Fold these 2 entries.
Entry 1:
Amino acid sequence: MWRRVASLSALISSTSNRCFLDQVAYRMSTCKLFSSEVKENPLTLKDLFITFVLGGPGSGKGTQCAKIVETFGYVHLSAGELLRREIASNSEYGSMILNTIKDGKIVPSEMTVRLIQKEMELSNNHKFLIDGFPRNEENRIAFETIIGADPDIVLFFNCPEEEMVKRVLNRNQGRVDDNIETIKKRLKVFKASNLLVVDYYSDKGKLFEIDATGTEEEIFERVRPVFAAFQV
Ligand SMILES: Nc1ncnc2c1ncn2[C@@H]1O[C@H](COP(=O)(O)OP(=O)(O)O)[C@@H](O)[C@H]1O
Ligand SMILES: Nc1ccn([C@H]2C[C@H](O)[C@@H](COP(=O)(O)OP(=O)(O)O)O2)c(=O)n1
Ligand SMILES: [Mg+2]
């Protein structure tokens, strides 16, 4: 709790963040995640082991997360998947989310963090892979403020652009954003916003950069030692 308050007061000094902060402050007042009120969930923030999984579109985040789940027993929360589920559920925010995704942009952070928070609350596991999040500084700060936690480690799948484009165009999952126009926009957003987050965690000593070229198995052999070292 003290960390939550400290980071919020630092943010309040920034007037450019004020509007976003009003929403965040409201959320915090209603936030029940891991609070003492949630009697049925014995987990506390300090019990959690949170991994953020970063990388450009098509870098193989989802594919490697499935292998980590299988081998190390984590819960996989894909931010994009949660947003796609929200669209499919005919939520009032569905069309806003759909248009944002089609346009290669990032959905307002409070929406995404709320969806992640809900899944974390429902889980009895304490080890989370949060895939495709945070994608920008606003995402990062919203998680820190609303959930009140920092990631323990951050994976970054580093993949050449042409390989990412090739993989996305071959993905064949019927996604509205798997087309050349959207992928070009997504790559611009990735370079402009996500790499700042990567640098932030690198400076904090939390980043594990993985060469995301080669076969799925070869890449997993680079991922495996990271999780083997954190048997939590
Ligand atoms: N190492 C790899 N080599 C070739 N194709 C891959 C590799 N890893 C994943 N793929 C394929 O590339 C596409 C994108 O992978 P995915 O895991 O969805 O990436 P991300 O979640 O980072 O967008 C999928 O169709 C997946 O099967
Ligand atoms: N933190 C996030 C994650 C995803 N989104 C939106 C915007 C992204 O382009 C889409 C798809 O994300 P997803 O992680 O599923 O995409 P990739 O697996 O990297 O191809 O969802 C978002 O707005 N904010
Ligand atoms: Mg994915």
Note: The domain at 48-229 is CATH 3.40.50.300 (Rossmann fold).
Entry 2:
Amino acid sequence: MTRDDLFNTNASIVRDLAAAIGRVAPDAHILVISNPVNSTVPIVAATLEKQGVFDPRRLFGVTTLDVVRSARFSGEVLNKDPASTPITVVGGHSGPTIVPLLSQSPAAKGISGEVYQKLVHRIQYGGDEVVKAKDGAGSATLSMAFAGAKFTNALLRGLNGEKGVVTPTFVKSPLYESQGIDFFSSDVELGPEGVAKIHPIGPLSAEEEKLLEACLPELKKNIEKGKAFVAQSA
Ligand SMILES: NC(=O)C1=CN([C@@H]2O[C@H](COP(=O)(O)OP(=O)(O)OC[C@H]3O[C@@H](n4cnc5c(N)ncnc54)[C@H](O)[C@@H]3O)[C@@H](O)[C@H]2O)C=CC1
Ligand SMILES: O=C([O-])CC(=O)C(=O)O
């Protein structure tokens, strides 16, 4: 079971929730956790667009668990407290679309070879590992609660006017729009309106260039699938 398999169940639920939000709370900030995030975020956007109330500053796909896993697993490899190994993760939220930028971390940039390959694989497939282990009984409940709270707190700090609150999140983004990929996760500064500034992804290592190459076509498919679902909905 991959996150994309959840599409058939979750797409209509997310669409209907988005339509209700558009009707009764069009100014709400919407934090989407339901999978597949790469498709459900475009579904929310397209639904709100249909209603004429979409504000891209207020819609977020929660990819924080990938950031939490990256810090945790890198910390294990380096034998360091995860708090001291923060990692930016860009792209989307499923397998090959999850691109951890270890080269940008002073602590993790030296990890290489087989250890690097295994670490990246574990970050990309950590969620699937949990889903398999729970064998039909749900997903990463507690760590998602932690990640959801972490992202929500960051957003609330930004909304309250705190400066310099920056974290990766999957938003409507200009970074790869020219390639038909108009949603992307990268570091985003959060401010009084929600999205204040979308940061570029910065310098990549040769390995990360390859990871990004694998990410983009998959992400494009996932986004298009979400949009097509709303276009076909009555
Ligand atoms: N973004 C992320 O990093 C993560 C996303 N997830 C996603 O979060 C979602 C929930 O995961 P779990 O809590 O493990 O699943 P779960 O199966 O334990 O819980 C799903 C809940 O949704 C309720 N539900 C079903 N249909 C509904 C409807 N039409 N309206 C309202 N509620 C409804 C069910 O009664 C159940 O309580 C899944 O889509 C999962 O893939 C989970 C972990 C991490
Ligand atoms: O795959 C799932 O349903 C859960 C998930 O997103 C994760 O743990 O990252």
Note: The chain is about 50% helix and 15% strand.
